[in-house]
Amino acid sequence: MIQPTTVPTTPAQEASAPWRERTLERLVQHVRAVLPVSAVVFLPEESSGGQPVGWFADESLRDAMEASMRRLARGRALLLPRVEAWQAAPELMDAIAAELGMERARKAWTTYRPASVIACPMRGEFGRQLGTLVVASLDGRRRLGKQQLPMVEALADIAAISLERTDLLEAEGRRARDELKLKHAAEAISGSLDPAEVYVRLTTHAATITGATSALITRLNARAGEVRTAATVNCPEELAAQLSSLDSAAFGHVARTRTPLVRSGPDATPLGSVMHAPIELGPRLYGVLTVGHEEPDRFDEDDLELLVKLARSSAGAIANAIDFQRERRIARALTQGFVPQSLPELPGYETGLLYAPAAGEATGGDVYGAWPVAGGDSVAVLVGDVAGKGVETAALSAMVRFFIEARSWDTLSPAQVLEQANAMLLGRLPQDAFVTAFLGILSHDSLHYSNAGHLPPLLVRGGTACPLDSHGLPLGVLESQRYSSSELRLEQGDLVFAHTDGLIESRRAGKMYGSERLVQFVVAAARTHTPRELVRAVHEDVMGWADAISDDAVALALRRSD
After folding, report:
1. Is the peptide bond before 414 cis (omega within 30 degrees of 0)?
2. Among residues 230, 213, 54, 45, which one has the least CA distance to residue 134?
3. Residue 16: its pLDDT value, please?
4. Could you tell me the sign of the dihedral formed by the alpha carbons of 298, 302, 308, 310, in that order?
5. DSSP label at 123?
């Protein structure tokens, strides 16, 4: 077989080359089986980037035909009973001499000149020329002539059909592989809700999928006329600045018109090849995705289409991450804006409070707080949870906190406060929402409390723990809910520990941390930790045990010190 000459190709052409070559190699064998020839060559069109595939019975014949066979591709069938008799024979000889040098050319021409040759174009279904089939015979007794011409034309047609089917199958295979790459990329990119991480994953996959050596994402501030690099792969700051300059014809055009572009050579400076694709979702332009390669003509329109698909599919992931972070900031602002960072001081008590936002969740459902009542002689403490997550839930949490605190100004009965708060919330909560709440009034030596469906706080006394009473359903469930209350006399050293379900529902390999594990840890840690140390130790233990905490967590500890 011919050792093909290296021709610059795009990645898509490189991928299809083995399929075409294997098909042509089989066709060479079929031609040899039906025609007594000394050489068979399938010569693809130069524009296709394909490489010739053939067989030669003689090395000198190989040298002569490899050096000159492009001159036989004339777009129509060509029959040469004897090469040296052809009027264009001098051109063939000159081409052979230019390629081989005079000494090798003489030997090659001596072998080639008496040969008979047929060259037939290979045309596709719609008349597009795919290449040329060239056959030659050195046997003077079995020359190729008019009788063999129909056979060679038929073989050229069969070859064209085979090549088109091969190209079609390869295109379908390449499309399937590209779709699979895009699917995997989309899954990886959308797997994070951190915008910075989404940008990094997108640039990494863009470089991998397109075969680029560098990639970057540029964010645009249209009003200020500024650009900002969001993420890069093998793209130093100076190179990123050149590729993403609004003064650059290619990048500036994409930024203004949102039209993807592929550029090569001088138009791709400072690289050999560059592609730009807008990252857009509806009217929102999140930036421009750029990939580059040092080699010119590295990318073609198929590569650009792949980059555009990646940019479009990733726009949703970027939008989700940005919106999620915005929602999370609002939720935290609503949650933290209505509650204290620390508990008010109460003589005779040590206190500890912890609020730990969930990692990777826009939460905001926990209700907690503490505020002075009865002229500062007592402190109201609240721990609760609104069902749900997100900004709406955070707003409901803030509303619940406000209603309960407002009602506590009129009465020191926690049961009455919860009843009044329940009546106010019934017309304001969504139909499927409810609120658990533990409200206690802490005085010098007692805790007067009522529990509306919340996890019972723990009383730790003498090295053991027992749950406090519960007094009814959560707020927002029944219209005429009545709550009772309990009063707990606190002795020196007694500790009350309240918390939300974010601690006990944390999971590892599908298993919950659980109330039993929490009780054991609190009892053990209470012996050596202050309340402030205890709430942090509990959270650290849960964090160390669980795969992740997917909900906010609140822990409140009160210990009578005298």
Report:
1. no
2. 54
3. 46
4. negative
5. E
Give the pairing type, strands 366-373 and 378-386: antiparallel
Q: What is the pLDDT of residue 309?
A: 93
Judged by DSSP in three states, 9 sits in: coil
CA–CA separation, 495 vs 559, rounded Å?
4
Residues 330/391, Cβ–Cβ less than 8 Å: yes
Instruction: For 231-271, write each residue's pLDDT tens digit.
Output: 999 999 888 888 888 778 888 889 889 999 999 988 877 89
> What is the rounded average pLDDT of the residues 479-495?
94
CA distances from 111 to 55, 117, 139, 382 (A): 16, 13, 11, 102
Distance CA 109, CA 91 (A): 12
Whole-number Å distance between alpha carbons of 427 and 547? 39
Residue with tokens 């990119």: 189
Q: Are 475 and 414 in contact (CB under 8 A)?
A: no
User: What residue type is 193 in one-letter code?
Assistant: L
Q: Are strands 378-386 and 435-442 parallel, antiparallel or unpaired?
A: antiparallel
The rounded distance, in Å, linking the Cα atoms of 99 and 417 is 100
Q: What would the DSSP string read from start to end of 327-355?
A: HHHHHHHHHHHTS-SSPPP-TTEEEEEEE
The size of the chain, in residues, is: 562
Residue type, 90: P
Of 15, 7, 8, 17, residue with least CA distance to 302: 15
Distances (CA, A) of 243 to 12, 202, 254: 24, 17, 12
What are 76-130's pLDDT values in tens digits? Answer: 999 999 999 999 999 999 999 999 999 999 999 999 999 999 999 998 878 888 8
Tokens at residue 487, please?
């009063």
- Cα–Cα distance list, 10 to 14, 15, 50, 140, 204 (Å): 6, 9, 11, 43, 21
**Does residue 341 register a pLDDT over 60?**
no
Around Cβ 34, how many Cβ atoms within 10 Å?
A: 12
pLDDT value at residue 14:
44
